[in-house]
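tokens incoming
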């Protein structure tokens, strides 16, 4: 029996999206559940936040504590919930020298990740919106991106390489631009100026980098003013990520529920949130279908 032609990879799909004029909007997801909710709402691109991954998987702050294995495993799970929806995943510093960056790109590619961002912070990195950051020199950064590009070519992969500079805070705008330009020369597909602080700076960065697409990191209450996708598009950005779009509301909702439980002995979970509702959000229908198509009847009475 012939099988259907394989659909395009998520990375190839993201490359197509980059060519269109629409803004690419990716909500931050930090676990399988938040990713499923983003898919339920109909987003056509997801962002795996490193900060959210470290917080949820390790219960730790975003200080470079996650290893390649932690991040890859998480990214693979997220990328494959719906492989037709591209996942942009945080890859921090690439986790070492050129050979480690090469392993990172190869492993993210094999895991079905559509795009990854690699930055110029030192290995003991921190969230880009904390003070006291330090960056490697421009040549080391260009080597990281060059290793990513060579790996992508070697594998025949469409994975989109996003170069992020954290140099704005310590070295100023001109040096940050120089770094992004060096990264583009080294093979980056998309530029990411971390911690942009004003609309003028944002507009100028997009102008100087054109035609290279620029990503905006819309961390709420960080260094960057709050802009909507439409406002970001008007400034010249092509992609926007909202890293805390799920972990922020989750914190409040979970905490409120726990306080209620502690004080009143009840969680206050809404009556519509039945066990079946939870499993439906995370793919119950698909699981039933797979079983039925294989001739099974395991879930007839679910
Ligand atoms: C984008 C980011 O890398 C992330 O992990 O989501 C973080 C977000 C954050 O911690 O504020 C970053 O900007 O460094």
């Amino acid at each position: 029996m012939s099988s259907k032609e394989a659909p395009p990879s998520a990375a190839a799909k993201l490359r197509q999206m980059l060519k269109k004029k629409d803004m690419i909007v990716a909500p931050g997801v930090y676990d399988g559940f938040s990713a499923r909710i983003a898919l339920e709402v109909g987003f056509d691109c997801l962002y795996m936040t490193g900060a959210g991954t470290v917080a949820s998987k390790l219960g730790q702050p975003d200080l470079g504590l996650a290893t390649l294995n932690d991040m890859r495993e998480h990214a693979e799970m997220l990328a494959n919930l719906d492989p037709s929806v591209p996942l942009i995943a945080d890859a921090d510093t690439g986790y070492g020298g050129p050979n480690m960056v090469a392993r990172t790109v190869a492993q993210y590619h094999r895991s079905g990740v559509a795009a990854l961002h690699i930055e110029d912070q030192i290995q003991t990195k921190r969230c880009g919106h904390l003070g006291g950051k330090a960056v490697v020199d421009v040549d080391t950064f260009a080597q990281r991106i060059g290793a990513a590009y060579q790996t992508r070519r070697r594998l025949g992969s469409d994975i989109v390489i996003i170069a992020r500079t954290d140099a704005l805070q310590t070295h100023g705008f001109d040096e940050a631009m120089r770094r992004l330009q060096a990264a583009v020369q080294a093979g980056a597909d998309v530029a990411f100026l971390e911690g942009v602080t004003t609309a003028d700076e944002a507009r100028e960065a997009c102008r100087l980098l054109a035609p290279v697409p620029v990503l905006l990191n819309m961390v709420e209450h960080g260094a960057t003013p709050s802009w909507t996708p439409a406002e970001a598009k008007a400034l010249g950005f092509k992609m926007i990520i909202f890293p805390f779009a799920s972990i922020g509301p989750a914190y409040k909702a979970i905490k409120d529920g726990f306080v209620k439980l502690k004080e009143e002995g009840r969680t206050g979970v809404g009556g519509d949130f039945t066990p079946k509702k939870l499993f439906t959000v995370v793919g119950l229908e698909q699981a039933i279908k797979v079983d039925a198509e294989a001739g099974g009847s395991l879930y007839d009475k679910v």
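note: Residues 28, 49-51, 62, 90, 127-129, 194, 217, 219, 222, 243 surround alpha-methylisocitric acid (CB under 6 Å).
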